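1st attempt posting a full record on here, be nice pls
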Amino acid sequence: MNAVVQADITSNESWRADFPALQRMVHGKPLVYFDTAATAQRPKQVLAAMDRFYHQFNANVHRGVHTLSGEATDAFEAARQTLVKHINANSQREVIFTRGSTESINLVAQAYARPLLQPGDRVLISYMEHHSNIVPWQMVCQQTGAELEVIPVLDNGELDLDAIPGLLTDNTKILALVHVSNALGTINPVQQICQLARERNITTLLDGAQAMPHLNVDVQAIGCDFYTVSGHKMYGPTGIGILYGREAILDAMPPWHGGGEMIRTVSFEKTTYNDLPAKFEAGTPNIAGAIGLGAAVSYLQTLGLDAIAAYEQQLLRHATSALKQFDGLRIIGEAEHKASVISFAIDGVHPHDLGTIVDHDGFAIRTGHHCAMPLIKRFGVPATARLSLGLYNTVEELDAFIPSLEKACKMLL
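the predicted structure (as tokens):
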């Protein structure tokens, strides 16, 4: 599915030159970017694909008969097809371009869940969800009278799997779950959980924003009904992503946005809607963004996601070992299966102060609640510092970070 030529990124660092932003200086120091979970840097291949669109065939898609429109349409739909193959969807009808995972989840909440849910029905999420997989469900529960329930998280940062069967009741209509936690790095056993839900005819949505940069994702093997993707997490542009949905479900759903492209006929008396995927893509799309996302997928395929994952696991082990040498440092979330994300708190040190000091040494880290306030509160801290490592990071960067962290602690304690 995702397999193409794979580069040996453990022994060849020439690929780092693909990322222009990594060549800059910050406060007179070389930039070390440890904030990929918030947004990844873009390789020059992605930038070139978008630049080529704007320079050579900038035009609207689907609606023109002239040459530029045809070329833009071909590139736009080729990007969709790249995503179809990458996640192993059945067809292009199952891949909807959106602004990202947040919009995709809201689309499902309003176009699928809102007409379905009734008072007494339940929507099940987990404690480790990003706000974008909490707030839309709270909103739709308020609109329909449904109830929101939450899967607990264990002290090691894993879901309480033993609790899930008891939470999947006859009234549970939707299970919405993160594939990989942005705050903890936990990789959830989504195939197993989706199987439990499917046995009870419960619709499943997976937030795949953090999984896509790290894992091979096969939506048919996972068995989910919906899967959401954010381009900027996987080395693509901001403001673009996809919603995967099983065709039968998408076909039965009403459109969410109205406007151009999503229509077949319009009169003042009645509008009929277009076929999938156009039914959910009202208005002029983010054409350059879609083309850039397709280029990002091709880039990841060239390196090979299995090779990337193996390399990132080396970085994760190295960073975890080094951080555990610090007195008073607590790693938040030590699940057995993790992506390359480490959140930590240090006794007596506020993460925001820590992040400000190490920034002056060129280190870009994330501090705060990571748009996962209930999860951070569950672990008894107001905020954490987070290292989120990508394919462009190195062991040498991690080794250089340790003295900066030590210096910051001496200043703050």
